[in-house]
Structure prediction request, 277 residues.
Amino acid sequence: MPNIKYNSERLNGVIKDFCIITDISVEVLDSEFACLASYSENKLEFCMEIQKTPCGRGKCICSDLTLLKKCRESRRVEWHICHAGILDAVVPIIKFDNIIGYIVIGRTRVMKFDEVYRRIDWMKPDYKMMESYYMNIKEYNEKQIKSMFKLAVMIVSYILTNEIITPELDPFSARAAEYIDGHLKENLTVQTLCRELNVSKNYLYEKFRTSFNQTVNDYIVSCRMRRASYLLKNTDLSVSRIAEEIGIGTYTYFSRLFKEKYNIPPLAYRKFYKVLP
Prediction:
């Protein structure tokens, strides 16, 4: 996994704008879940009260890690309602097929307080106080929540396009990644890459292992699936046409590869993630 570099000022500016527009908390983490930036317009007294106890802090940490690990495994947007009745979501930041960070959004109210109170009854809290804290958390309907997820995905694209967060690759690995990204529609092979990049097979294999933690062929497939996911979300191209655009000849083979990568068929993926009106 390559190291990352990021522009702290620009990153903080982006998530601040996102938070002001949506009125939800935002946090950006690196690939090891360490915080790079965070912003919230409001203090979440409900969460702060729960985290005053060691048990409460432990439950919150466990809940957050469970969601983050689920996102790391699926490599797509994941969400849950935490142990205390708060909705959170995580969007992976992926570059050169490596997860280089995560955007965590949410801290939104989605349940009736009586249900929430049963979840936190173990701490024997003051009912009225906790109800007041919980009701101060903004509530969103299902349509608004889905829109926030989509907006967060667009924020990730903006961060990557403007290189606000980016992996640090050696010159050869960066050149190899750039070549593959620009020729996905073509018949990419190890032999082609060796010829175009003027290196031996052994050198190519070693560089991909150390820089991307993948074989050359696995990396090419991953890049094709990542391009396909973008086209599914941002265009009206048919699935068959998308398969052609990324250099995969048949609809059936493409669908199988895509489902293996994202654990969801292409059309179902488009239905949930599509950002066009």
The chain has a mean pLDDT of 89. The first helix runs from residue 8 to 22. Residues 171-273 form a domain with the Arc Repressor Mutant, subunit A fold (CATH 1.10.10.60). Residues 233 and 274 are 4 Å apart (CA to CA).
